Amino acid sequence: EYIAITALSFSSARLLLFYSASVLSLGVLPIVCKYYPPLWAFLARAPCSHFRDADFVLVLCRDGAYQEIPVERIISKIPLAQRRQRSFTFFEYKKQRYVFREGTSTFQRMSSTLNISASDIHNLRRGMPGSEALSILQRNGPNTIDVDPVPIWQLLYDKTLHPFYLFQIASVIIWTYELYYLYAILIAVTSSASVFWEIYLTKYNETTLREYIEPESFCTVLRDGEPTVISTHHLVVGDAVLIDEAAAPAVADMVLVQGSCIVDESSLTGESVPVVKSSLDIYDRGEERYRPEGRFKDCTIFGGSKIVEVKPMPYGYKPQEGDCTPRAIGIVTATGFNSTKGELFRSILYPNRIDFKFYRDSVAFVGVLGVIALIAFINRLSLDLITIAGGFCESLSLFDVTDCCDVVPPALPLVLTVGATMALRRLKSKGIFCICPDRINYAGRIDTFCWDKTGTLTSSKVELHGLEPCENRRLLGLAPSFRSRYRDEQPTTFEEATAVCNSLSSVNGELVGSPIDLELFRAAAGWTLNQLAESVTLNGRAVPVLARAVPPKPRPTSSAPSSARTSIASRPSSASHQQTTMSLSAHDPSIHDPTALLVLRRFPFDAQLQRASVVYAADDGTARLRVAVKGSPEAVRILCRPNTLPLDYYEAVSGFAASGFYVLAVASRDVDASCQATPDLFVGSVGDLCREQVERDLKFEGFAVFKNPLKADSAATIAVLKDANIQNVIITGDSAMTAISVARDLELCRDVLLVDVFERGLGVRLLPLEAAKKSPQSSTFPTAVAAANTSETESTTSSLTRQRPRSATLHSSMDQLALPAANSHRNVQRRILMVGEHKVDDAFLDWVIGKTRVFARARPDQKSWIVRRLMGIGRHVGMCGDGANDTGALKAAHVGLALSEAEASIVAPFTSVRKRVSDVPALLAEGRCALETSFMAFKYMFMYPIVQLYLAAIVNQLGSGLSGTEFLFDDTFVVLVLALLMLRTGPSARLIRDRPTDTLFSPLITVSLGGHVILCLSFFAINLIAVAEQPWFCSAFTAVSGVDPFHSWSPLNASAPSASTYPCYPI
């Protein structure tokens, strides 16, 4: 967060000396100290030898700036016998608390996050002692996400002390002293308008951001084993929160340890479909540390998301007397600015600094104006010393200093901000909202645009194309549903697997969840899914039923197997479980249904593993447990027994993917008794099954093939960007062949060079367009860039285990690549790829990334890495996604556009509430308009003071000058009005190939600016020469040659004739 800190202490004597020096320097010293805080620290603070005794710290930020922060101390309110520490010494920097540690004698960042193993989380379900919670609250601070309102006087003070406005204040004083009252008033009014406009924008953005902050509310937690109602601001990490209220926002990041919830995360991720959050396995005894992403994401409720429905479970927390409502329980894992929502707010309040040449060059151009003013000052001063004697001081005051004041236009800040503001208002009228106004100018320079595929370029809804079962290692062909193939037979294991292997949940009578889960469940026509608070008895122990899948009626039933391993009762008696089960009415058709399938255990979808699985049993009185697994063909294949795989597995998958279909592989198996370990504290033996035990030795059941059609406006949008010379890149988690098919449909590529990223190398294959629907063959090229020599076979992420070429090379002329991400996260993060035993350097990696059109099998962290890598090679990158798993990439890009129905989404700088990819050209057009009009207005504001300075200097040298009214007319009507009218220019109706430049020193700008200046000065010179040649022309020096300008213009010789005293005005 920072580079270094320096300990300082308060000193009354030093502070008094500083104030005295400030008065003597006429306010110059405080201004200097404001822009160089180390000088303030040296003059007004005393050095401190130890951080323990510091009253202030001077922080050196990563951008080179300094900031003085006060050190706070909190005396513990906990009784002496219970507290660990007497007081806390800390300071807060960028909404993070740094606490002094005696052991290290320095300040360390105090992260308000839970950092324990998943198994230890369940130990917190009974709550924590009140004294411990108070101690954590004092140490970590309250659970608040606050945007501190900056007082208007503070903003006014900061703006006024800006060098630009200090210059304008000096100009007002000088022009007033020279009796140019009207022009002095104009400068004051224009500068004030610029200041108040900037303050208005700051307060408006601040107010907009504060609207996203949830107000204080109350919640119920377990403290000292008792339910206690507390303010949400007093929540601490480790609190057990009782969740029993729907339609309420989540008050912090929490991991569910009991029950399940349906949550709306649209304000955080842009995902409009409610998400099912299930409880963390209470039998998870692994030592893996909890983290909100990865396999724990499906059981984590992120702060700021809205809880739509709460589904309590019949075990765990035992209701107190008089409270018969079972509740869901969540353990607080992060609070305040350490929560997911808090981190998003921090990224808005303290964005990563992205260098933009326009802002840097604008400062340089003002410096150029200052140099020009200095040259004019020296020139005028030298003429005064030579031609005017005795009146040096007055002449200097009147002409020389005022020449310098003409150089920097007072309306410059106003002009530079109005253009972007108008563009943002036009975007808002089109349904595009912005939370980072500074990013609008970046949109004008985008030359590479990255796209998420599913939900962005393609529809968020998928359609089942068909189901292809496998029998005796043969694929039987596609069928639209199970009913069309098996009409009056018992459900097959393939059908059972599709019916139970999902994370669907019922909300108000409707199933919600992943579109793929919904579509696959509908394929099992006639099945119903019930989620009743029930449990079954397995080996004498109660096991919760997560869901009950019931096949359609009437269906023939089979008798129960005679050789049952152990008994399984349908439900425990109400007498023994009256407090942990809900009573079920006898008329419910799902009770005692031997055809029903009971889901006893879920392993949610893991993006790293690319699969999900469930453990289920039939409600037929047996203990026969089965496993159903579904996932990517690559992930499922390696888990299946080879003798169950069809011989044409790879060809079938490649054919579907090459045609643009999304393919899931389904497998299953029986769970034998050897997998059932000793019972744990909470549930029976099914709870002891770990994922590695369940997902192995599977029998391949078949493929589920889906269509994910392109959106209606995707092709037209891509065509518009291509015509505008913007490179389009697809970054997706889908397979390479599916992504390539979509890219070909969008005409992003034809013949493709597919680069497979292995653990230890690169594999290269050529995919001609003519062979798109055939199995891709390996190919080599004559020009060797790198070679790979590895084993005969190796597993890849984009395809299946297959024969690898012993030597793979890259052709230097290929510019269309598809690059699946590596299996190993380490390979990508270290930015090093291995080919054989040789390292591929960064130059080669940048070449590959720069040429790639499709990145497949990319995880969320890899998406953001790809975006940053593209930015690192000089690209101006935009990103568009639905926010579900590309939040990092949307934040990392120069311009991120989230397709979300939530206007208050803070997942990206820009949000399209219409969820249309066609909003991308509109955004880029407005960005180009804002940038181009800013350049145009800046050129005009740069040109006119040069022309005005030259005009005033020449006229002064000719013995004359401009009046205050003339200056007023120039700055009001010739400059300000025209500049504001320029900024009202709207965007072009279409994007063209030429983009606005990003530097004021480009030939386009300098030639244009220089040409206009030369043109204006040339016309002025021509007019001046033409006037001087007229017979009636009389110069000012001749006109005043007979009078004394320093004594009321009285004649030098009172007795001289009037013709000699007033030669230009004969009487």
How would you characterize the overall build of this protein?
- This protein has 31 helices and 49 strands.
- The protein is an alpha+beta fold and 1067 residues long.
- The strands form 11 sheets. An 11-stranded mixed sheet has the order 19-47-46-45-20-35-44-41-36-37-38, sandwiched between helices.
- A hairpin with a 7-residue loop joins strand 39 and strand 40.
- Helix 11 runs parallel beside helix 27, helix 19 packs parallel to helix 22 and helix 27 runs parallel beside helix 29.
- It is elongated, with a radius of gyration of 37 Å.
- The relative contact order is 0.09.
Name the descriptors.
single chain, alpha+beta, 1067 residues, 9-stranded antiparallel beta sheet, 31 helices
List the helices and strands and how they pair.
Blueprint: E1 2-10, H1 12-24, H2 28-35, H3 37-44, E2 45-47, E3 56-61, E4 66-70, E5 72-75, E6 87-93, E7 96-101, E8 106-110, H4 118-121, H5 130-140, H6 152-160, H7 163-177, H8 181-210, E9 218-223, E10 226-231, E11 240-243, E12 248-249, E13 253-258, E14 260-264, H9 266-269, E15 275-277, E16 300-301, E17 306-311, E18 328-334, H10 340-349, H11 357-387, H12 392-405, H13 412-429, E19 432-434, E20 448-451, H14 453-457, E21 463-471, E22 474-475, H15 482-485, H16 493-500, E23 505-507, E24 510-512, H17 515-523, E25 528-530, E26 535-538, E27 541-544, E28 547-550, E29 568-569, E30 597-606, E31 611-618, E32 625-631, H18 633-637, H19 649-658, E33 662-671, H20 691-694, E34 699-707, H21 714-723, E35 727-731, H22 736-745, E36 752-757, E37 762-767, E38 777-778, E39 793-794, E40 802-803, E41 817-820, H23 825-829, E42 833-835, E43 838-840, H24 842-851, E44 852-856, H25 860-872, E45 877-881, H26 887-892, E46 895-899, E47 910-912, H27 919-957, H28 964-983, H29 1003-1028, H30 1036-1039, E48 1043-1044, E49 1050-1051, H31 1058-1061
Parallel strand pairs: 20-35, 20-45, 35-44, 36-41, 41-44, 45-46, 46-47
Antiparallel strand pairs: 1-2, 1-3, 3-4, 5-6, 6-7, 7-8, 9-10, 9-11, 11-18, 12-17, 13-16, 13-18, 14-15, 14-17, 19-47, 21-22, 21-34, 23-24, 25-28, 26-27, 26-29, 28-30, 30-31, 31-32, 32-33, 33-34, 36-37, 37-38, 39-40, 42-43, 48-49
